Amino acid sequence: MMALVYSPEYLEHKTPNHPESPDRLSKIIKGLEEADLMGNIPIFEPYMAKEEDLERVHTSDHVERIRTFCERGGGYLDFDTYASPQSYEIAKLAAGGAIKASELVLNGFSSSYALVRPPGHHATRERAMGFCLFNNLAVALEYLRKVRKIKKFVIFDFDVHYGNGTAHIFYNDPDVLYISIHQDPHTIFPSEGFLEEIGEGAGEGFNLNIPLSPGSGTSDYIYILQRILRPVFKDFKADFYFFDVGFDAHRDDPLSRMLLDDDFYEWMAMEISKQPQPRVLTLEGGYHLEALKRCNLKIINILKEETLEHSQISPEMSRVQEETKNLFKRIEDNFSPFFTL
Ligand SMILES: [Zn+2]
């Protein structure tokens, strides 16, 4: 059974005229209401992350900078990252939402999903960027490592942007395997996440990037993920699975040039439901409100019951681009010292 983590306080991170708006979460909740899921699916209040939790990931300078910036009234932290006066508190509640979701799966739920904002995956140890103030998922992971003594983690990030913050935080860490599928960073923020970025030192081989060309669609995604996720997960043998969820590779999304349709999110949810437990999902991007609502609902509908008797979605081979097939071959070569694909 699946649990959700949500609080209406997440709407208090105000971002005027910004694509990462409170309307995103309102729309998701409206979708749950329309589908008669509110009340049918357990929803928990997030924790409020403590400074101690944040500082397992972030520098105390960074935490302090966000706190004082918000205290002084907020504004733009950089060209696209906004904070309002309440944002410091709400960002702690977002990180705490990921911690709460992690606790829920250790207490018996098969999956949990932290419906939080601001998002987190671009926030590095020392700075806010890409709409993100603190790295929610990384804060939860370090909590699990420190407090729950969990050792090995997989993070699979399918937001259309590379989660550079998450990747950097764990770049030298052999116990955290970060896999990201995203639009080719030559063509999109944050201009990193290339195939050659495979981790460093002891972490070499544990940062796996799948940078697809703009215009890639559901068949490309499924083709390549079918060949990578399960074999790599099987080799790595994690104790805990994070799925970093973004809806901005949808064909309707204004921030990317990818062409996913709703079916992809159904396929992805089925794929998640087949992976070992415990599994935590955390929300990142997705800026077309209707697509966000529909596709989010698809994920929740599948994971809430773990029913596997859904129509089988498979890639239309004729639609898989040559570039995608070549990319897979290059990934297979690059990672052959580390994983058998
Ligand atoms: Zn994104």
Per the CATH scheme, the topology name is: Arginase, Chain A
As for the number of domains, it is: 1
Hetero ligands: zinc ion
CATH superfamily: Histone deacetylase domain
Query: Beta fraction of the residues?
Result: 5-15%
What share of residues is helical?
Answer: 25-40%
Overall CATH class: Alpha Beta
Rg for CA atoms: 18 Å
Class computed from helices, strands and strand pairing:
alpha/beta
CATH architecture: 3-Layer(aba) Sandwich
Detail the poorly predicted runs: none
- Count of DSSP H/I helices: 10
Number of strands: 10
How far the N terminus sits from the C terminus, by CA atoms, comes to 31 Å
Strand line-up in the sheet with most strands? 2-1-5-10-9-6-7-8
Average pLDDT level: 96
Coarse shape: globular
Name the helix and strand elements from N-terminus to C-terminus, one letter apiece: EHEHHEEHEHEHEEHEHEHH
Describe this structure in words.
There is one protein chain. By secondary structure, this protein is an alpha/beta fold. It has a single domain (2-335), classed as Histone deacetylase domain (Arginase, Chain A), CATH 3.40.800.20. The chain is built from 10 helices and 10 strands. Strand 3 (75-76) and strand 4 (82-83) form a beta hairpin. Helix 4 (87-106) crosses helix 5, helix 7 (218-236) runs parallel beside helix 8 (262-273) and helix 8 runs parallel beside helix 9 (289-305). The longest helix has 20 residues, at 87-106. It is globular. The chain starts with a strand and ends in a 7-residue tail after the last helix. The relative contact order is 0.15. The mean pLDDT is 96. The structure holds zinc ion (ZN). Residues 159-161, 246, 248, 284-285 line the site of zinc ion (ZN).
